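Page 42, continued from yesterday. The earlier attempt failed because a stray header line got pasted into the input along with the sequence. Redoing it now with the clean sequence only.
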Amino acid sequence: MKNKMDDLISKNKILGKTFYLTREGLKKIKGEYQKLKELKFSKTRGGAPRFFHSDDLDPEYLDFEDDLSLLDAKISDLEYIIKNAKVAKTPPPKNQNIVQLGAKVLLDIEGEKEEFAIVGTLEANPSLGKISNESPVGRALLGHRIGDEVPVSSPIKTIYKIEKIKYSKS
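This time it went through. Structure tokens are written below.
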């Protein structure tokens, strides 16, 4: 069963898009890639289950083939991401007052304070305060400065006032 990330990876493979990641995000993906390669090696080290000649296919063999196929697809996707990843770099000090990929932005949203990190689509997780640079809010904030009031219609028009911008050290 495909999930949203699988759909995103497939779409980007077709379009040849770049995957924007933070340094931590790329490290996490490389770690997952290594673990899956090790898992594949451990599953295939003993070889495939024996295929018994009969009119029916051996269910154990079919399960093994399905697992291996899914594992190969995931490894292939992660290889593609790593190959097409672009890591967000901390901008020079003179540009750190502008919202760019990798920024943590403190916002005043109609009297409420919220902080978001602007990340690529693969790392986005709004419940953890990470919003995609391609989301309506993320896209609207990019290029703005401290003090800017940024209107976003998603689905209701809301004003986001930028109060602070931080970047982690590279």
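Notes: Helices lie at 4-15, 23-45, 59-83, 136-141.
Reminder to self: strip header lines before submitting.
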